[in-house]
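FAQ: What does the model actually see?

It sees only this:
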Amino acid sequence: MGSVDKGLVLLQGRPMVQHALDRFAPQVDDVLINANQNLERYAAFGFRVVPDSIEGFAGPLAGLHVGLTHATQALVATVPCDSPFLPADLVARLLGALRTMDAELAVARTFDQPHPVFALVRRSVLPHLTRFLEGGGRKIDAWYATLKTIEVAFDDEADAFRNINTLAELEQLDIRSD
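And it is asked to produce this:
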């Protein structure tokens, strides 16, 4: 969508981030919103907003880094704001696999496609992530490949991980809801 802040784009009359929050917030004890623009507009959703602390655009890992830095819980779940249909049982399923496998990171997967921004991460990996970022690492899958990771199958909810990247996709979803 170019330079548009996707989280604030309206879907079915509400910002996409509101759809994501409505599904995500009931699954966790606390919510932090990572945003680097429109901070006041995001704060209006009633949750703490934290911008990246890594210089330059470091992508999703910068958001995870600041989330882990500000988190008060031992585990941090992450979801993107442009995926308004995320599973209502996302965190529970990731948590079950993380504990069963004693993993550091659980990542959602549909069929053969991992979705690394839908994850549950142990806060204890923060020093490891900091070193990775300080060394110039930016690719989320390259980082999580260095951890004890479990991919959790969500083949039964594949459409839940659909993200909206274009105005045409957004328009198509709005038409379907009428």
